[in-house]
User: Which sequence fits this backbone?
């Protein structure tokens, strides 16, 4: 604060003293004067004053009493008392109680008075600095507290992720070990039965070995796909292919599961070109993952709808079932990698039993492959009524842009 901005208020009922002190300080400070405590309070309520100098002996109210009131109404103002030696005991009490910063004895020495007043302004400045520092410290503490809360939340998230990791490892172990146990068991039976050579038993054992081995291969391939497809640089293997070839391959893959569950696949198409452009293998994966989910979560004997419709820009693919539906709390998470359920006993490693779950990679791959084509996927579901997935793929897909993934999924 510059000296010009400093305001000094003098309170004394003797005009000569007011005039003398004002002349002493007028070149250094903005000097205000008041003959009574009441007028001084009026000035303090309208002006910004840093230092007040008041005489102890005034009519109506003493200087100590005035400064005590001032402490309550204007605590930031530095209070200086001008007094004679006869009032020294009152002054000491006022200093001890904090009413007064310091006192100046009458008669005063001009040099000493200048020094005392200058020190009072310095004290005011230092106190403002302390207040500012305390404020900064308080803000820093609040920021630190906020950061501690955020750190605590991050630690909780890490704990959750660690739990998910542990569950995932448990699920993977469950998924892989069961087929391995089947392979080993049938391998033992095969070795034992081959000694007597019963062709029916041998064929059954060989079929089970092949089925379990393919299950292991499928799980391994899906995990590998999930890891490698996270690379945003991964390019589409675009090619032209026949629409009928796509239908035939999907039906061929799905047929054993439909037969096992006594279900029907109803396929319709509208305005779909005979020749399509895209990454054939990835589109097959999109359809088979969605259809296998429909098989798993539909009851025996129900019908699954697979509908194709094309407009001028997009191919729209709808997979609808009348199964158990998706819980509303899960709807926004179903496309997250490894999201399925946190209890491994509900995971299926066999023949797609009703309501059983996999390791939560299928739908994540579906979304990834849809995004890579520049498309999007919607889902509508109602518990107990069924689920409908709708995939929108551009008829002329371009290079994959990883930023599009944020807009690839829209639950309904």
Assistant:
């Amino acid at each position: 604060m510059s000296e010009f901005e400093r305001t000094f208020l003098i309170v004394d009922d003797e005009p000569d003293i007011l005039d003398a002190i004002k002349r002493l300080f007028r070149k250094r400070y903005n000097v205000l004067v008041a003959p009574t405590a009441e007028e001084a309070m009026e000035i303090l309520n309208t002006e910004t004053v840093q230092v007040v100098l008041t005489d102890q002996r005034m009519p109506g109210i003493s200087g100590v009493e005035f400064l005590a009131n001032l402490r309550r109404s204007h605590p930031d103002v530095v209070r200086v008392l001008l007094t004679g030696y006869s009032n020294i005991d009152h002054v000491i009490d006022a200093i001890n109680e904090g009413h007064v910063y310091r006192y100046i004895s009458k008669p005063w020495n001009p040099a000493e008075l200048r020094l005392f007043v200058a020190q009072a302004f310095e004290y005011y400045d230092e106190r403002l600095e302390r207040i500012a520092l305390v404020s900064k410290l308080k803000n820093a503490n609040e920021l630190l507290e906020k950061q501690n809360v955020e750190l605590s939340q991050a630690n909780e998230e890490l704990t959750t992720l660690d739990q998910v990791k542990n569950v995932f490892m448990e699920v993977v172990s469950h998924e892989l070990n069961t087929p391995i146990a089947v392979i080993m068991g049938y391998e033992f039976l095969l070795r034992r039965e081959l000694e007597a050579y019963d062709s029916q038993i041998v064929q059954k054992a060989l079929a089970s070995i092949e089925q379990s081995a393919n299950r292991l291969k499928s799980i391994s391939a899906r995990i590998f796909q999930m890891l490698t497809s996270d690379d945003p640089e991964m390019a589409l293997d675009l090619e032209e292919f026949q629409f009928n070839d796509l239908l035939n391959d999907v039906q061929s893959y799905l047929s054993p599961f439909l037969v096992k569950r006594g279900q029907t696949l109803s396929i319709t198409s509208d305005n779909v070109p005979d020749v399509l452009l895209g990454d054939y293998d990835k589109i097959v994966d999109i359809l088979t993952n969605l259809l296998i989910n429909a098989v798993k979560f539909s009851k025996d004997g129900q019908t699954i709808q697979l509908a194709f419709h094309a407009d001028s820009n997009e191919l729209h693919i709808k997979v609808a079932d009348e199964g158990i539906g998706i819980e509303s709390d899960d709807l926004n998470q179903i496309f997250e990698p490894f999201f399925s359920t946190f209890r491994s006993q509900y995971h299926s490693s066999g023949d797609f039993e009703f309501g059983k779950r996999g390791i939560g990679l299928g739908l994540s791959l579906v979304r990834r492959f849809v995004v890579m084509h520049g498309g999007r996927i919607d889902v509508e579901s109602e518990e107990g009524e069924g689920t409908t997935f709708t995939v929108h793929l551009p008829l002329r897909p371009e290079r994959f842009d990883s930023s599009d993934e944020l807009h690839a999924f829209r639950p309904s």
Remarks:
- Residues 154-228 form a domain with the Helix Hairpins fold (CATH 1.10.287.130).
- The longest strand covers residues 386-394.
- Residues 341-355 have pLDDT under 50 and may be disordered.
- The first helix runs from residue 15 to 25.
